[in-house]
Amino acid sequence: MSRVAYVNGQYVPHSHASVHVEDRGYQFSDGVYEVCEIWKGQIVDMTPHLDRLDRSLKELQIPAPMSRRALVRVMKEVISLNRVNNGIIYMQITRGVAPREHNFPPAGTPPSVVMTAKSVSPHKMDQVAAKGVGVVTVEENRWDRVDIKTVGLLPNVLAKQKAKEAGAHEAWFVDKNGLITEGGSTNAWIILKDGTLVTRPATHGILRGITREGVLKLAEKKGFSVEERGFSMDEAKNAREAFLTSASGLVMPVVKINETILGDGQPGPIVQDLRKSFHDASELIKLTVAGGNAPGVC
Ligand code: PMP
Prior knowledge:
D-amino Acid Aminotransferase, Chain A, domain 1, binds 4'-deoxy-4'-aminopyridoxal-5'-phosphate
């Protein structure tokens, strides 16, 4: 079956899904987004993802386009219409369509809502994780409000392209104090020789990753000590293990930072354990569509 997208109230073939040329997301990056993992027919950590979406909208003064109940219903429809059992759902809300002017459009302009879902093979992801990935460092050059999950991702795009060209999987931003902030689309972690997990506090300079929050809970459950503080490149290069977290990659072992191979160049036992047991600490919402007729695809 071909893919289906939700665009402003309609379920349309993915190949024809489009928004207006004067959508403010298209013209100004004036919008926010979320990505949730779908695992074994369940939405992972939906509540915290939607809480963060609400916060992002509020920070940008974009009105909520619909109730949470309605949003969840659309999410479930999109996932089910695309028959996704394992994969991701992408949701984007922008300030809507209006003649191009920087200041906000008139009150009452409806926000635009787009959702897509796609299958991702867990086996393929696990194969990547089994080998571990490399990261390269780039200078932090983003604005001060990276805590808001906006679609304005140009520095992230350029950083991740640089990583790709260097044969790496991710780019780590390094701030003016020489401390790693986060990756282009992931949060950054190291594990010290004594087994302590270290990640930057979510108070400033990073997106408060939902997977990061999950790993914090899991680490507590497992009795690991955790330090939420910045860490330098020197510390990272001498770490016992390192990893990335994100909804789309979960817990991804890092085995190389720039030219430095970590340990024996293989994913370490702590990271592997956190990856394997990640869903033990997450909220799992089953994908049954609640009552009523499924909207037709047009
Ligand atoms: N930082 C950035 C810059 C990201 O884009 C993402 C993923 N969207 C993350 C961290 C990880 O967040 P989450 O665990 O909620 O996917």
